[in-house]
Amino acid sequence: MPSPLAPRTPLREGSKSPYIGRFAPTPSGALHLGSLTAALASWLDARAVGGRWLLRIEDIDPPREMPGAKDGILRTLEALGLTWDGPVVKQSTQLAAYREQAFQFIQQGLAYACCCSRKQLSGFLVYPGTCRNARHAAQGAAIRLRVPDKTFAFVDRVQGAFSQRLADEVGDFVIWRKDGLAAYQLAVVLDDITQGVTDTVRGADLLDSTPRQLYLYQLLGKKPPRYLHIPLLVQQDGRKLGKSFRSEALTRAEPGQALVRALRALGQCPPRALQRQSVSQILQWAVSHWRVENIPRVRTLLEPVAD
Fold it and tell me: What is the rounded distance in angstroms from the CA atom of residue 195 to the CA atom of residue 191?
């Protein structure tokens, strides 16, 4: 659904390249304020420079899906005015492409089949390389990518410089699961490449996944996007705001209040009276006042919106 706020020439700030952002929720439950905050940050970062904003549903883990969640996510985003460009892409339609790439890595000697059980790996923080040279058959096994003994570093637009030595901190990681499903790291990189994503805005809980994704971009010969990891929202008891902790789902009854709470969590300092404005007016204010430099780096305590 095209947005009326998006001008015709979407350019990244300081660049001649088009800005293409995306939001990629998992349909394991309804949107909560934490996921709205990530969606809003991504949407604003795109719209503030006239960029495109894509919507992708990460539905590659059927056991975790909640019936009706996909449709509920779309309807909630619509009620909040977070319109997207182009068709909604579902990862479940791309499984063949993920599998083909995983097995191609095996053929290139960059990956291998792993038959380790969870019990065998319990107690290990880094994969010990048990199957690295075992030459197991790939059918019915997980596929792990061999990681080099080198550091992958990048500068996040909010969190600053971040680096990770994959061999020491992660080890060879799974790109294809034993149950015949793609692992997140491979799927997200292939999808972002296919959709031409130039800027990834997401929660800081995915910060340490980024070096693995940078390695995949390197192997695939593609330029990675810019990254912006927003701080996680935490509840009064210190727990991350998320589906696993029964966080309150957003309702479509008070979209203005939800948007203003998300703006405050992003450090954008909306005026108190803004929550009484229409969704369109709130988003217009937010686009014109979007300041990445105001986003806090650390976890943000969830606070109610004052009347």
Answer: 6
pLDDT at residue number 268: 96
DSSP 165-232: EHHHHT-SEEEE-TTS-B-HHHHHHHHHHHHT--EEEEEGGGGGGHHHHHHHHHHHT-PPPEEEEEPP
Average pLDDT of every residue of the chain: 89
Contact 202, 38 (CB under 8 A): yes
Instruction: Give which of 33, 182, 34, 159 is closest to 100, Cα–Cα.
Output: 182
Distances (CA, A) of 79 to 85, 265, 278: 16, 20, 11
Residue 134 CA to residue 111 CA, distance in Å, equals: 12
The DSSP H or E segment spanning 118 is helix 118-121
- Give kind and range of the element (H or E) at residue 144: strand 142-145
Is-contact 91 57, C-beta < 8 A?
A: yes
Q: Which among 136, 135, 169 has a CA at the least distance from the CA of 152?
A: 169
Q: Tell me: the pLDDT tens digits for 169-196?
A: 999 999 999 999 999 999 999 999 999 9
Distance CA 188, CA 80 (A): 25
Helix (H) or strand (E) holding 99: helix 95-107
Q: Encoding tokens for residue 218?
A: 């390197």
End-to-end CA distance of the chain: 32
pLDDT in tens, 44-97: 999 999 999 999 999 998 888 899 999 999 999 999 999 999 999 999 999 999
The answer for residues whose C-beta is within 8 angstroms of residue 166's C-beta and 6 or more apart is 147, 148, 150, 152, 173, 211, 212, 215
Q: Kindly report the pTM of this predicted structure.
A: 0.89
**Whether the Cβ atoms of residue 37 and residue 233 lie closer than 8 Å to each other:** yes
